[in-house]
Specification:
432 residues, alpha+beta, Penicillin V Acylase, Chain A, 8-stranded antiparallel beta sheet
Length: 432
């Protein structure tokens, strides 16, 4: 389960996404430099081999460690993309490109948001979508929707198998784990209505709606996808009405709970900030990203850690001379990673309300201090500014790890939530 948001105001585009995955599925933030003359003609994605392109953009990715692709990311041309799982009526059981592969390919090959969208479309039509997308859950298969944005425009792209529709965003938009585009698409795949008729999904007497034709009900209902979608719209509506938008508002949108006063043990699938808690509530927000895009400079912030309500957003850029604290040295190494180290904090503090509230207050103060570095320079930072901002969050991260790392786990007695996390911690090796 995931949620992605985009907002356009005062010639600035804001992008935000939570990546909800299995709670033990490490998500790493990596930076991959551009390539100008790659001699390799083939590329191995998560499941299939496709044709490689010799020249590719540099990318920053937040990705599950075992997958070639990514849940969200940006390229050095100012394009950002986030994807959502869609349980359409056209899911193919054959192996193809999974949504995370498509996202990375769109960033590596796309010069603008619209160009990246058409890169993804062409790949879907050529290779199709397919393959297990779950880490331990080998039944998890899905199609995908995307928000694709740059400093000038944003698009929603929704798919069902090899078919798709796209809609340009005017002011703001949110997507979740359900289709959102009905009859109001701006672009569509060729032969879309005819294919739907052949599959018995569409009767020509009615106006064609992509959402009504291809969406399913079972998983979106139990995942509370429509409720999270509405919550995302509510957050964006409130944010849009502000005279001046502070990027921390977008960060806080990703920290939204259906009941803002509730603790993680009483969370629900209606939460944008998702806390895993059992059979029905199996997903955990394993990584988050917020970007500010404008014609002079693009700024990107990733948590690199689970649970944005217990995480701090950290700056990252394409300046290869700066070793940002959020970055992992490679795409697969979990041991000693920022994500793993933060889990020692996260998995203790879900049961410690007072200490969690103290942590959240310190997050707000530190983020304000970090973001003030960018505000003082009109969001056009120098390399020294980026280093200064990163040093603020690096020191905060180190302090928290040393303070909470060795606290004893206190599982509540006679609690299904406590049993779930005790079993999960044992499974993932967090037992000290």
């Amino acid at each position: 389960m995931c949620d992605t948001q985009v907002l356009i105001k005062n010639n600035v585009v804001y992008f935000a996404k939570n990546s909800d995955r299995e709670p033990g599925e490490t998500q790493l933030v990596v930076r991959i430099p551009p390539e100008s003359n790659d001699k390799q003609q083939k590329l191995q994605t998560t499941y299939i081999t496709i044709e490689q392109t010799p020249s590719r953009h540099g990318v920053i990715l937040s990705k599950p460690f075992w997958i070639w692709g990514a849940e969200m990311g940006a390229n050095d041309r100012g394009v950002v993309i986030g994807n959502e799982a869609i349980y359409s009526r056209a899911i193919d059981k054959k192996r193809g490109l999974i949504g995370m592969d498509l996202l990375r390919l769109g960033l590596e090959r796309g010069d603008t948001a619209e160009h990246a969208m058409h890169v993804i479309i062409e790949l879907i039509e050529k290779y199709g979508q397919g393959g297990v997308c779950g880490y331990r859950d080998q039944r998890m298969r899905y199609d995908n929707s995307f928000i694709i944005a740059d400093a000038e425009q944003a698009w929603i792209l929704e798919t069902a198998g090899r078919f798709w529709v796209a809609k340009k965003v005017m002011f703001f938009a949110a997507i979740s784990n359900c289709l959102t585009i009905g009859e109001d698409f701006d672009l569509k795949s060729e032969g879309l209505e005819d294919m739907a008729k052949q599959k018995g999904l569409f009767k020509s007497k009615a106006d064609f709606s992509f959402k009504k034709t291809f969406d399913t009900r079972f998983i979106p209902y139990f995942a509370a996808s429509r409720q999270r979608l509405q919550s995302g719209h509510n957050c964006l509506q409130q944010t849009f009405q502000e005279p001046q938008i502070n990027i921390q508002q977008m960060m806080n949108n990703l920290r939204t709970h259906y009941d803002q006063s509730a603790s993680p043990d009483s969370g629900t699938n209606r939460d944008i900030c998702m806390h895993a808690g059992g059979f029905i509530r199996r997903s955990q927000t394993c990584g988050s990203m917020v970007s500010r895009l404008w014609d002079k400079h693009s700024l990107h912030f990733c948590t690199g850690t689970s649970a944005p309500c217990m995480s701090i957003f950290k700056p990252v850029s394409f300046d290869l001379d700066i070793d940002f604290s959020v970055l992992n040295p490679d795409e697969k190494t979990v041991e000693g990673s920022l994500w793993q180290n933060h889990e020692y904090i996260h998995r203790r503090l879900v049961f410690m309300d007072k200490k969690r509230h103290v942590l959240q207050e310190s997050i707000a103060r530190t983020e304000n201090e970090m973001l003030s570095v960018f505000e003082e320079n009109n969001f056009d930072p120098s390399a020294d500014d980026m280093i200064k901002a990163d040093d603020i969050v690096r020191k905060w991260t180190d302090r928290c790890f040393h303070e909470y790392r060795h606290h004893t786990f206190h599982y509540p007695s006679m609690s299904l939530y406590g049993r779930f996390w005790k079993k999960t911690n044992e499974q993932d090796g967090f037992i000290l």
